[in-house]
Amino acid sequence: MSEVQHSTQPGEMAQRFIELVMMQAQQAAMFLGQLPGPDGSQPQVNLEYARLFIDQLEMLQEKTRGNLSNEESQVLGGVLSDLRLAFVKASSGAPPEAQQSTEPSITPEPSLQVPEVSTEPEADSGSRKRFTKSYGS
C-alpha cells in the first residue's frame, strides 16, 4: 500500500493548528454555557465535558512546548487562559450574564502570518513558571 504525501506549507500547518485549537475551544465554551448547543438550544453547562476539552488543550500545549510559533503559542495560551477563567466562574455558580463577558476569543485572525523562527536558544526552562490545574472544585 503506497502512502499519499501531501505537500503543505508552514503557514498552512500553522492555520490548521490554530483551527484545531479553536474547535476544541468552541466545544469547551459550549459546555461552559457560553454558546448554544449544535441544534440552537439554550446553552447548557456541563463542567465535566468542559474540563475534558480544557485538559485536552493543556495536553496539546505541553506536548508542543518549544515547537510552536509565537502566534500559535499566543493563541493556545490565550484560549486556555480565557477558558480557565470561564470554568472557575461557571463552577462557582456565577450568573450567565457575568459569564458572557469572559467568552473566549475563538475567532482566529483572517490573515495568518507565521513569524520567523528564532535560532537563539531559549532561556533556561527551569525559570519558567509552571501552572497547576485548579478548577476551584
Give a summary of the structure in a few sentences:
This protein has 137 residues and is an all-alpha fold.
Protein architecture, described:
48% of the residues lie in helices and 0% in strands. It is mostly helical. The protein has one domain. Helix 1 runs antiparallel to helix 2, helix 1 (10-31) packs parallel to helix 3 and helix 2 runs antiparallel to helix 3. The longest helix is centred in the first third of the chain and has 22 residues, at 10-31. The protein is globular, with a radius of gyration of 17 Å. Mean pLDDT is 76; it is low at 97-125.
From the N-terminal CA to the C-terminal CA, the straight-line distance is: 50 Å
**Fraction of residues in H or I helices:** 40-55%
Low-confidence stretches: 97-125
Describe the largest sheet.
none
Radius of gyration over all CA atoms, rounded: 17 Å
Quickly list its features.
4 helices; globular; mainly alpha; 137 residues
